[in-house]
Write a structure and sequence with these properties.
By secondary structure, this protein is an alpha/beta fold. It has a single domain, classed as SPOUT methyltransferase, trefoil knot domain (Alpha/beta knot, 3-Layer(aba) Sandwich). It has a six-stranded parallel sheet with strand order 3-2-1-5-4-6, with helices on both faces.
C-alpha cells in the first residue's frame, strides 16, 4: 500500500478517536525511536520481563526483540501496566536456538549489538557511541547472556558500580541503561526519530488497538477502496 494511502487510512482511523487520544498519540510518536532497541534472551521471570517493557515504553523505545530458546517470554499484567500494547514485540522462537538469527538480523539492519555484562571492561554505558543504531542485549537473571550471544555481539557494556554487589537486577539494568542512552540521544544532533513512514505505520497500529473492532474497521475501509 502506498504511503499516501496509508496516510488516508490513518486519517480515517483517527476519526474514531477522541481529541485527547489523538493529541496524545501525536505527542508520543515524536519521542519514539528505533535508533536504540532492546534484546532480551531467555528471560523467564514475568515480573522482570514486564518491568523491562515498561522501561522501554517510558524511554520511547519502540522495538523489543525477544529470544525464546528455553523460556517463553511472559509478562505480568500488574507490572507491565499495558506497556506491551504500545511496543513492537519481535519474537525469535522458530528454532531450538534463535540467538544467532536475532543478532544477524539486527546487524543486517545496521545495529551495533552490545551485550550487557558486569564482567568485561569493554565500555561503560555512558560511553557507547551512538552514531550507529544500538541494540542492548540482556541475558537471563541467573546466567546472563549465552555463549552464542557473547561470541557474536559487537562489544560489551556495563553500568559502573561502586559497592560490594557485582550485578543489578535485569529490569533495573535496563532502566538505567535506557535512561542514560535516551538522554544522550535527545541531547545529540543524531536523527533518532522515526521516519514519517514509520510514524504513520505505528500510528495505524496504535489506533487499531484502541478502537473497538479496529481490525474489522480497517478491513472494511480497504474493501471499499477496491
Amino acid at each position: 500500500m502506498p504511503v499516501v494511502n496509508k496516510q488516508e487510512l490513518l486519517n480515517y482511523l483517527l476519526n474514531f478517536l477522541s481529541e485527547n487520544k489523538k493529541d496524545l498519540f501525536e505527542k508520543i510518536i515524536e519521542d519514539r525511536t528505533k535508533h536504540i532497541t532492546v534484546v532480551v534472551e531467555d528471560i523467564f521471570q514475568p515480573q522482570n520481563a514486564s518491568a523491562v517493557l515498561r522501561s522501554c515504553d517510558v524511554f520511547g523505545i519502540q522495538d523489543v526483540h525477544i529470544i525464546e530458546n528455553d523460556n517463553q517470554y511472559n509478562v505480568n499484567p500488574r507490572v507491565v501496566h499495558g506497556a506491551s500494547k504500545w511496543i513492537n514485540l519481535l519474537k525469535y522462537n522458530a528454532k531450538k536456538n534463535n540467538t544467532l538469527d536475532c543478532i544477524k538480523k539486527l546487524k543486517a539492519d545496521g545495529y551495533k549489538v552490545y551485550g550487557t555484562t558486569p564482567h568485561t571492561d569493554d565500555c561503560l554505558i555512558q560511553n557507547i557511541p551512538l552514531d550507529n543504531k544500538v541494540a542492548l542485549m540482556f541475558g537471563t537473571e541467573m546466567n546472563g547472556l549465552s555463549d552464542i550471544a557473547m561470541n557474536n555481539v559487537d562489544g560489551f557494556v556495563k553500568i559502573p558500580m561502586y559497592g560490594f554487589t557485582e550485578s543489578l537486577n535485569i529490569s533495573v539494568s535496563a532502566a538505567i541503561s535506557l535512561y542514560e542512552l535516551s538522554k544522550r540521544l535527545k541531547e545529540s544532533t543524531i536523527n533518532w526519530q522515526l521516519s514519517e513512514k514509520e510514524k504513520i505505520d505505528q500510528l495505524i497500529v496504535w489506533a487499531k488497538k484502541v478502537i473497538k473492532n479496529g481490525e474489522r474497521i480497517e478491513q472494511l475501509y480497504l474493501k471499499n477502496l477496491e
